[in-house]
Amino acid sequence: MLIIGIAGGTGCGKTTVVNKIINELPEGEVGVISQDSYYKDTSHLNYDERIKINFDHPRSIDFELLVEHLKALKINTPVNQPVYSFVKHNRTGDTVLTHPRKVMIVEGILIFTNPELREMFDIKLFVHADTDERLIRRLKRDISERGRDLDEVLSRYQMTLKPMHDQFIEPMKEYADMIIPNNKHNTVAIDIVRSIITQKL
Ligand SMILES: Nc1ncnc2c1ncn2[C@@H]1O[C@H](COP(=O)(O)OP(=O)(O)O)[C@@H](O)[C@H]1O
Ligand SMILES: Nc1ccn([C@@H]2O[C@H](COP(=O)(O)O)[C@@H](O)[C@H]2O)c(=O)n1
């Protein structure tokens, strides 16, 4: 199994890049695990307590479960990926049965911060988009898809997102094998990654 890690700040385009990579590959050959599915369970908290969580800090992620799942997939065992709700700030209780594939892509803002997980990646990619571009994209996406409003996005940005990005995410570029510039849609980089995957299939 080839395991590819794709990191980068919120709104840089990780999900978009992954979808473009897999869209033109044979179905069933490449699997995806999203770090977002592994936000810790917050059922013990009420909604007002949940919205105060710093979701840009590594401690908000259940890395133990993520590593356990990736190890299971490596030995050909399917896993139940949790489903996460950005509206409720919690896991929904549903899971998605995820089968092992020849190539597994793991994507998420903080995936290179955990040494055990980082060591599991055969290839590490970092998607870069400028800070202002990412904020604009995040605003539009969170308002249209994640049940947020302007104030929510901007206050989260100032209070936690930006400081955590500077402290934990940007320094992870150091570990990347390749940085994908994504201020504009980058078809060349996507073709390169797709051809690396195709060689493995
Ligand atoms: N290169 C790009 N140019 C313009 N918009 C983009 C680009 N890449 C992604 N987007 C848009 O930005 C938003 C965030 O992208 P997404 O892939 O969800 O980012 P991430 O997974 O890194 O948070 C989405 O609405 C997506 O359509
Ligand atoms: N309940 C939550 C959980 C996470 N976030 C934000 O999601 C961002 C990471 O996801 P991307 O798809 O954008 O990479 C991260 O910056 C968290 O602030 C949230 O808003 N609410």
TrEMBL record:
Residues 3-188 form the Phosphoribulokinase/uridine kinase domain. It catalyses: uridine + ATP = UMP + ADP + H(+); cytidine + ATP = CMP + ADP + H(+). Pathway: Pyrimidine metabolism; CTP biosynthesis via salvage pathway; CTP from cytidine: step 1/3; Pyrimidine metabolism; UMP biosynthesis via salvage pathway; UMP from uridine: step 1/1. It is found in: Cytoplasm. Pfam families: PRK. GO terms for molecular function: uridine kinase activity. It is an enzyme of class 2 (transferase). Keywords: ATP-binding, Cytoplasm, Kinase, Nucleotide-binding, Transferase. Its EC number is 2.7.1.48. Its main location: cytoplasm. InterPro entries: P-loop_NTPase, PRK/URK, Uridine_kinase-like. Belongs to the uridine kinase family. This is Uridine kinase. It comes from Gaetbulibacter aquiaggeris. The gene is udk.
